[in-house]
């Protein structure tokens, strides 16, 4: 019987390559699914890729908010400074601050300081907004996206006024990283 078994095996092995049989068997075993190590590796790669994309998105968003804050402060501040300067140059008289060297947080320009006739213009700060009152009508010069934390008008002598104000952006975030402020200053002399 041993002899018969040898003959059968020898005949079968010559017809069928055993190495080929075992290689097919082992490759079938590998392709039947993912191993735990492969799943953990893929999950880790996906998590790292997602974290990188989220970090990039956050950095881009923060940079955009900071740029927006700077832009708002610059636009609002330049506009307010231009309006103040233009009205100083076209005014007939400085009522407040009166006297050389005096400073005030209000600027009052008029042709007659006691009666307030003609073109009466007053610049004041109300709730962080610069308000220009022209002949009794309030005109806000800055909007709610930025605010003025301080403003000073100084009589530089005779018909000259210097002004300075600090404009800051509103912080819409819980962090202070988007806050931006800038000091605007200038001056003007009444053209007579």
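-> sequence recovered:
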């Amino acid at each position: 019987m041993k002899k018969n078994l040898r003959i059968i095996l020898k005949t079968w092995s010559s017809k069928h390559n055993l190495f080929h049989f075992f290689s097919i068997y082992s490759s079938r075993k590998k392709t039947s699914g993912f191993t735990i190590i492969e799943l953990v590796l893929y999950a880790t790669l996906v998590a790292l890729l997602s974290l990188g994309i989220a970090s990039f998105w956050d950095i881009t968003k923060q940079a955009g908010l900071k740029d927006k804050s700077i832009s708002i402060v610059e636009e609002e501040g330049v506009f307010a400074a231009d309006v103040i300067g233009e009205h100083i140059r076209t005014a007939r008289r400085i009522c407040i601050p009166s006297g050389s060297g005096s400073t005030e947080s209000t600027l009052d320009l008029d042709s007659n300081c006691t009666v307030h006739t003609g073109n009466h213009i007053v610049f004041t700060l109300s709730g962080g907004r610069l308000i220009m009152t022209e002949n009794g009508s309030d005109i806000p010069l800055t909007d709610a996206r930025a605010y003025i934390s301080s403003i000073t008008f100084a009589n530089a002598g005779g018909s000259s006024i210097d002004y300075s104000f600090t404009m800051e952006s509103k912080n819409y975030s819980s962090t202070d990283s988007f806050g931006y402020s800038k000091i605007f200053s200038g001056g003007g002399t009444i053209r007579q």
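The chain has one domain: 44-189.
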